[in-house]
Amino acid sequence: MDQIRIIGGAPLNGLVEVSGAKNAALPILAASLLGGGECIIDHVPQVRDLITMGKLLALLGVEVQTEGSRVVMEASKVQSIEAPYDLVKTMRASILALGPLLTRLGEAKVSLPGGCAIGTRPVNLHLKGLAMMGAEVEVEHGYIHAKARRLKGARIDLDFPTVTGTENLIMAACLAEGTTSLHHVAREPEIADLCAFLTKRGAKILGAGTDTIIIEGVSELHGAKHEVMPDRVEAGTFVMAGAITGGDITVKGCISDHLGTVFTKIQEMGVELTEHSEGVRVRRSGPLKAVEVKTLPYPGFPTDLQAQMMALMSVADGTSILTETIFEGRFLHVPELHRMGASIEIDGPHAVVKGIPVLTGAPVMASDLRASAGLVLAGLAAEGETTISRVYHLDRGYERLEEKLKAVGAQVERVREVV
Ligand code: EPZ
Q1: Res. 116: pLDDT tops 80
Q2: Which numbered atom of ligand 1 lies nearest the CA of 167?
């Protein structure tokens, strides 16, 4: 398994460009299942999760061609209804095939995604919503088996604003009979991007980006062209890389509106963020200051930037409090940060982070995608060498991260494991 080796202490300077959003591209590619006609998707990040999604779609009968960041799909010949365990276990977002397969073919058999490092990750709300639209849903032998001659529009109030749950139900409703009103849905920008693509395909959707979405079912969807929005989590990660190293970088392709609460907190820490034509410029003159952060559904502080924020807090002046309200197990980066000298105490969903002047480099292990990013930030600021193992976690969601960081002055390299 590859490792990333970082010699910390170099301030980052220059321009870094954000790739397409992984968590928008995943539902958008899955939406190809909803009907025939050529779908041309641009600005797709070249990361492992999207490669896995492409494999799953091809297995289901979608014609998939990838040329760089362009993915061309044609799904008139989808005939399989099954998303198998050996693929789903490598990428939980495979659950996004459930809604489209069920509403397009009247049946879907999708392996239960199972938990992952950050939590149990149930999908009960996905299934409850589909059942309310008339699906017969059974869960046995590790598989979700859903059937419905044709889904019927319904009013669905979600217990929790689940992101992929919202996306599954929107896609299912596109071809349902009648109107579906979804309430208390997630408002992440990736959902609005999915809705923009579906609307280009002929879907009738109102309220994208709000907590109430109305979908009027249509008989079929046609092909369309779409460019995926920039990745706000990658953008936030680079802004924090500039903040933790005390350099002067510009993050290109970043949409500030998508990171409102994140930027407010980073500015509270004493970092100067200025927006200009090229993107968001990140500078810091004094020490980082401690802050309090609580992760919340959008537009609150995103859980996907929690580990990265914790790295920043680890070297801030004073004591910060970070509360994780979305996933019960999302503190796996803490023991690794301890190895680098960080002073963090966990108390249930709260992490009390006593800032220290400098972290020290150490061998650490990535446990999940965003924890890996937090460890990279810590390594960039630490004294000495940090080697991060199991970087396949990082490769799931960051495109050429070490190359992008090296281009703005980081002393970082990927050490390929000699097999
Ligand atoms: C999406 O996951 C993202 N993944 C995650 O990003 C992100 O962390 C998460 O939303 C929260 O923003 C993709 O979009 C592919 P949820 P998702 O359903 O949809 C509970 C990354 O690093 N819940 O919004 O799986 C659940 O247990 C990944 O890119 C239920 O109880 O998250 C959790 O506590 C990690 N029942 C909370 O809701 C359900 O049926 C949020 O989960 C569904 C969810």
Answers
A1: no
A2: 19
